[in-house]
Design brief:
The complex is a heterodimer of chains A (239) and B (549). With 239 residues, chain A is an alpha+beta fold. Chain A folds into two domains: 75 residues, Ubiquitin-like (UB roll) (Roll), CATH 3.10.20.740; 149 residues, Alpha-Beta Plaits. In chain A, 23% of the residues lie in helices and 15% in strands. The longest helix of chain A has 17 residues. With 549 residues, chain B is of the alpha/beta class. Chain B has four domains: 91 residues, Glutaredoxin; 204 residues, NADH-ubiquinone oxidoreductase 51kDa subunit (Rossmann fold), CATH 3.40.50.11540; 83 residues, Ubiquitin-like (UB roll); 105 residues, Up-down Bundle (de novo design (two linked rop proteins)), CATH 1.20.1440.230. Chain B is built from 22 helices and 13 strands. A five-stranded mixed β-sheet of chain B has the order 10-9-13-11-12. In chain B, strand 3 and strand 4 form a beta hairpin. The chains are: A alpha+beta (239), B alpha/beta (549).
């Protein structure tokens, strides 16, 4: 913390909390054990504010603010759990479920999936929108990993971890709108990739079963993320 | 270039023009060009020579004259005669008619409301100067504004002028231009940028294209003045690759301005240096959003990012960046030349000056118009636009493209300014204006714009990516007769979600066409859903038996 950063107080859901001026609403909420749902956010990766699940109400602002990127301010009054927010969050989750193929019972990550956990946590009982069920081809060309785009929610965590932490930039995105797709090496089979180092970080940051290790059966693909904060600290020389 | 040289070029040019007794202007902007104005111009030039009148008659290509529906257009100065639908075969008759009475069969009245009711600031040179000749622009007081600010004004005084003029961003949202300039000038950095947003993407809009094609130097001058005011030395014009003529004319203009020392180092012998480069957009609507545009200029995928930080603080290459629309920059030189008060006298209390609109759809005079703020929509459509052709009934006018809304007959007497259009559930937008008559189905219109947003969504944030897809699906169900009342409720819920939770302006405004048609034409939705019928007979409704239960 540089000496210029001020210590401030703000209210989150009516509770007074302290924070450093350079923190985000999400960081402060987590410090105080207050839950804000997130999907694209992952501690240690750059912030994109894309999933819109962490939107919160800030008093005096007409627009909802993404907690992951919004910095705290002195005397800010934040509401993170209003009825309106819960409704929006449920609908966003429903939209994600309707977009691709998320049948939990046959998924390697069943029981360890962030999308599944959030749906339960947000009391999503059913999906009001028609399912798209696009038929996307599975890429099992890599000798240790498998990529199933049907389970992908386009959060781009894999893209960011590969670029920012591993430095390989094997993953990227192509296409627009619902046709957006995460790809390896200019849409070539993953197994032929010259850039992939096989480090497996993408597997473990993926919130769903879209990226998995080969040989894992239903429910067996639990993700291990401990490495990420450690690597980030190493990079920033704060260790 | 010294101030004296600028005056000299202007004087020589004006003299050269006066040597010709008749000056024949042929529109060579995209619309007339597509109906063959280049051959008309060629033929006219040939006829001038073969009839031995090349000493008295000058033929030159100029920018858009506005009445695109009647193109190719030819105007004769100083006789003030205008010809419409000119073909190469008419060239001989036109040249013969010089010093005689005009060719009656081609004549286009110049005193009709279409021309009379317009007030031209942005388009003052359009249809008059040759966009490929810098001398023509200089003769029309071009670069005087730049000379004035560099020699008489401090950067702060320039911003004060722009603030006082009341000019607001012409890209759509209507943010105060002076305020934006002052923010960038206050941002702390020794490297700043000026960007001109020419990624005009609304269906039916062609204002920026016409300005860039017909009077490119005006935009360069506006940008250079902005560069001086905010402390930037580099500008970018982001123009879509689908505008080849605009790109060609801009390239020529930049080269000429550099050659004359009006861009480059030490402009007019001052310490101010400014350069402009072109960046071409590859056909993504979302790149009109400022943060996506910046990403695209940096060579990245054109995707918006969350704001703040706003570009005025962190823009291109992370440096403070001023982004204004083509039309905004085109207003700057006249404001400087004629003073802020002159500009502020036009328009309404909160919306000053004029606005260029691209009039399209079911209206007699489709084309490009510039009108003072505060004029009513009725005047635009029925006076200037000449009303609805084929004796049909007016139904709605769509302003603001996919982010705007449809305005019905009963609201036509509202004055056109940023606030009233917003109150009506539409937006000023960049200036697209699509007129619809009773042969249009409003649900179908909403579906069309939703399909546009669905295809153009960049896919970054979930509400826009999947929400527009689901909304489009619901609208498809309504228009094919398979929707239920519950579907309409879901559609309204999705509108609310996408509007309030999307990351950028594309998503936040994508529901507007649906919301505004629901507001004014709810009955049409009801008829589609309950009676399984399309009142305008546009939608292919399945008969009740085919509807899946």
């Amino acid at each position: 913390m540089s000496p210029q950063v001020r210590v401030i107080t703000l209210q989150v859901d009516g509770k007074e909390v302290s924070a450093r001026g350079d923190q985000t609403i999400l960081q402060v909420a987590r410090e105080n054990s207050m839950f804000i749902p997130t999907l694209c956010y992952l501690n240690g990766l750059s912030l994109v504010g894309a999933c819109r699940l962490c939107l919160v109400e800030v008093k005096g602002s007409p627009k909802l603010q993404p907690a992951c990127v919004t910095r705290v301010e002195e005397n800010m009054e934040v509401s993170i759990n209003s009825e309106r927010l819960s409704k929006y969050r449920r609908m966003i989750l429903e939209l994600l479920f309707s977009e691709r193929n998320h049948i939990c019972s046959v998924c390697v990550s069943n029981g360890h999936c962030e999308l599944q956990n959030l749906a339960q946590n947000q009391q999503m009982t059913h999906v009001h929108f028609p399912y798209r069920y696009p038929k996307l081809e599975l890429d099992s060309s890599h000798n240790r990993f498998v990529y199933d785009p049907n389970r992908c929610i386009s959060c781009t965590r894999c893209v960011r971890v590969c670029d920012e932490i591993e430095g390989a930039h094997t993953w990227d995105i192509m296409g627009r709108g619902v046709d957006l797709k995460v790809i390896t090496d200019l849409n070539q089979p993953w197994g032929n990739s010259d850039t992939c180092t096989g480090c497996g970080k993408c597997i473990h940051v993926c919130p769903t079963g879209a990226l998995a290790e080969k040989g894992k059966s239903v429910t067996e693909m639990a993700k291990r993320r401990q490495f990420l904060p450690y690597l980030t600290l190493m990079r920033e020389g704060r260790w | 270039m010294t101030p004296e040289e600028l005056g000299e070029i202007a004087a020589t040019q004006q003299e050269a023009v006066l040597r010709f007794k008749h000056r024949i202007h042929v529109c060579t902007a995209a619309s007339c060009l597509s109906s063959g104005s280049d051959r008309v111009k060629q033929e006219l030039s040939k006829e001038v020579v073969s009839q031995g009148r090349d000493k008295q008659c000058q033929v030159k290509g100029v920018g858009c004259m506005g009445l695109c529906v009647k193109g190719p257009l030819v105007s004769v100065k100083p006789d003030n005669v205008m010809y419409q639908n000119v073909t190469p075969q008419d060239a001989a008759d036109i040249i013969k008619s010089m010093d005689a009475s005009p060719v009656g069969r081609l004549e286009c009245a110049t005193d009709q409301p279409f021309f009379r009711r317009q007030v031209k600031i942005v388009l003052e040179n359009s249809g008059r100067v040759d966009p490929e000749k810098i001398g023509d622009y200089i003769a029309a007081h071009g670069y005087e504004g730049l000379l004035k600010v560099l020699t008489e004004f401090s950067p702060g005084e320039v911003i004060e002028q722009v603030l006082r003029s009341g000019l607001r961003g012409r890209g759509g949202a209507g943010f105060s231009t002076g305020l934006k300039w002052s923010m960038v000038s206050k941002a702390d950095s020794d490297r700043k940028y000026v960007i001109c947003n020419g990624d005009e993407g609304d269906p039916g809009a062609f204002m920026d294209r016409s300005v860039l094609e017909g009077d490119p130097h005006r935009v360069l001058e506006g940008m250079a003045i902005a560069g001086y005011a905010v402390g930037a030395a580099q500008g970018y014009i982001y123009v879509r690759a689908e505008y080849p003529l605009a790109i060609k004319n801009l390239k020529t203009a930049i080269r000429q301005a550099q050659h004359h020392g009006l861009l480059g180092t030490n402009i007019f012998g001052t310490t101010f240096s400014f350069n402009i480069d072109l960046r071409l957009g590859a056909g993504a609507f979302v790149c009109g959003e400022e943060t996506a545009l910046i990403a695209s200029i940096e060579g990245k995928r054109g995707m918006p990012r969350t704001r703040p930080p706003y570009p005025s603080q962190e823009g291109v290459w992370g440096e403070p960046t001023l982004i204004n629309n083509v039309e905004t920059f085109a207003n700057i030189a006249p404001i400087i030349r004629n003073g802020a008060d002159w500009f502020a006298r036009m328009g309404t209390e909160k919306s000053k000056g004029t606005k260029v609109f691209a009039l399209a759809g079911r209206v007699a005079n489709t084309g490009l118009i510039e009108v003072p703020m505060g004029i009513t929509l009725r005047d635009i459509i029925f006076e200037i636009g000449g009303g609805i052709p084929e004796g049909r009934r007016f139904k709605a006018v769509q302003t603001g493209g996919p982010s705007g809304g449809c305005i019905p007959e009963e609201s036509l007497d509202m004055p056109v300014d940023y606030e009233s259009l917003k109150k009506l559930g539409s937006i000023m937008g960049s200036g697209g204006m699509i007129v619809m008559d009773d042969s249009s189905c409003m649900v179908d219109v909403a579906k069309y714009f939703m399909e546009f947003c669905k295809t153009e969504s960049c896919g970054k944030c979930v509400p826009c990516r999947v929400g527009t897809y689901q909304m489009h699906g619901l609208l498809e169900r309504i228009t094919d007769g398979s929707a239920s009342a519950q579907d309409l409720a879901t559609l309204v819920e999705l509108c609310d979600l996408v509007q309030n939770t999307s990351l950028c302006g594309l998503g936040q405004s994508a529901p507007n066409p649906v919301l505004s048609t629901l507001r004014y034409f709810r009955e049409e939705y009801r008829v589609h859903i309950e009676d399984k019928a399309c009142p305008a007979n546009v939608c292919q409704i399945h008969s009740a038996r085919e509807v899946p239960a």
